[in-house]
Amino acid sequence: MTHPLDSFFENAAAPVLLIAADDPVVGALPTGFDGSMLALSQVTPGAVHKGGWKTVLLVASDRGALRQAASLVPRLGQCRVVGVWLSQGLSPLPLLPRAEWPPLSSLHGRRLGSPEEDEGVLTVARFEAPVGAHQVLKEMARQAVPGVDTTQQGVVLAYAGRPPAPGLDVRALRLADVAEAGDAERDVPPDVVLVPEAPVDVVPEPPVADEAPAAHHVIDRAPAVVCSPLDPVDEQVYNPIDWRKTWDLPLVDLRSLAPGPCCITESVVARARAHQGVQLDLGSEDPQHVLRLAMAGVPLVASGRQPRLDGELERAILERPDLDDPLAREEHSLRVRRLTFDRHSTLAWRRSLAPSDSGAPRHPGLPPVSLLLPTKRPEQLEFALGQVARQRGADIELVLGAHGFAVDRARVAELLGEVPFTLLEFEADAFFGDVLTALTHAASAMLVMKVDDDDWYSPDAVHDVLMARRFSGADVVGMPSEFVYLAEPDLTVRRNHPSERFSRFVAGGTTLLDRTLLSALGDFRRVRRFVDTQLLTAVEAAGGRIYRTHGLGYVLHRASGGHTWERDAQEFRRPDIIDTEWSGFRPSRAMELDSEVEAEVEAGAGRSVGRV
């Protein structure tokens, strides 16, 4: 029986070091294998493995396993050929060599096996001179997800007697015991030491005096010792990217989707996308696998209990939505993946590690955002401020630009409540682009998000755009104008915009980006109209990535006038772009409107005019 790597080893320069990141993926050794095998689960903390290998190959199931393995890879010495086989990977890995490395002579990536028998992807980098193999593997793991990976920022972690948690943290320390954390010779001591979880029926005891870490002179305190009850899910690998609003296949049992020793990998998630949902028993499944599906947005039909999950998340998973209704299916998926992100992502997990009385720093959460609200319509101001005031789950400030009229500052403060704000006033003939640039310069946060004065925003709109920025690594993130309320005919249309994918367009009233990028682009262009189009075009021209998250938290309002972007209402009702049409105002339940409007929504009848 042939092995997927037979061809690779027949042509590889020997001796070879084969590194196993997770046990199930290696199986029988390939036919042409000539060298040594290293299981990362058995690597001694701080060990150095330099065996004079000419080829080093790391084997992992997918990008999630690769990123976790990169925190374990010891010093391996130098070689000219470094490869990664992802046995259930979806695409070859990118690699932009670091400036201090020797030049690449070739970078080759390919899928192994036939379309019927997919055996993963192989990526092999060959260098003109020897390079540190462990450095290449860690860089491949870092570049496996888009954007800059800041998972490890804020808190320095160490692991004693247990492997590193999911995610990539090449700075994490691996210790033989807790006491090592207080070693005075250590230049970079940990803030927090993670120890193994105690059995369910055993109350964990604090370390005894000779095992507890001593106070360290660098941080002027002892590292905190923490037992984390459940490792997080790597949201930069398992996430809603490529979510599907429709399905080709019926509800499927998890054991049928991933038979044998159940392991949820990227390929399993990709297969699940085609199904209406996945059925599982929370009590019998590894909670890590449940979290991967939940974070990916796969609709779950669950039974049983899993006390290791956050209680609110468990209750949300156990709800039984009407999966025959595509909108209800997506609303359920959104609630579950949002709770998973807030309670079990690497970001949330790291933020919860440092005990409040330990003196250890707290890992930063979602970054603060300055909302930019320019308006020429005083009659819309109170409505717009109400949309800002209802935001939750995000640290926001408002930078308000009154374009051609004076504003009562006290009234603004009253309507915003605890939301801090800055008020700028402009002459009526000021360029719209200049107004937005001035608002940006007055902002205090590094991230800015443009909002409009007459559109509706869910309480989680800012949070969800930040969440999408985190898992996508995109330079610009926003929502589609999927729901549109047409005032004159009094209709709500849901357009068939695909969401949760990289795109060239997001709704201007939801656009979020970094001020550094905006400054590099020359700020907002000095125009009176189409300012959003100018910005997105500039980002694309600069090579930036634009990500479109879900469209359930935003409703575009189109009236007869007052917009810098004029468009006939009938343009929003073209049969080729409409999914559903309702009489009256009919947003998604994710908007969480007041009870009177919700009653009107329940009474409204939807008229389907086409599906994709």
- Strand content is 15-25%
| Uncertain stretches | 601-612
Biggest β-sheet, characterized? 8 strands, mixed
Domain module tally: 3
Q: Do you know the CATH topology of the largest domain? A: Spore Coat Polysaccharide Biosynthesis Protein SpsA, Chain A
Q: List how many beta strands DSSP finds.
A: 27
- Report the total helices: 16
Strand line-up in the sheet with most strands: 16-15-14-17-23-19-24-22
Terminal CA distance reads: 43 Å
- Name given to the CATH homologous superfamily of the largest domain: Spore Coat Polysaccharide Biosynthesis Protein SpsA, Chain A
Q: Categorize the overall geometry.
A: globular
CATH architecture of the largest domain, please?
Answer: Alpha-Beta Complex
Determine the mean pLDDT: 89
- CATH class descriptor of the largest domain: Alpha Beta
What is the gyration radius calculated from CA atoms? 26 Å
- Structural class, please? alpha/beta
> How helix-rich are the residues, as a percent range?
10-25%
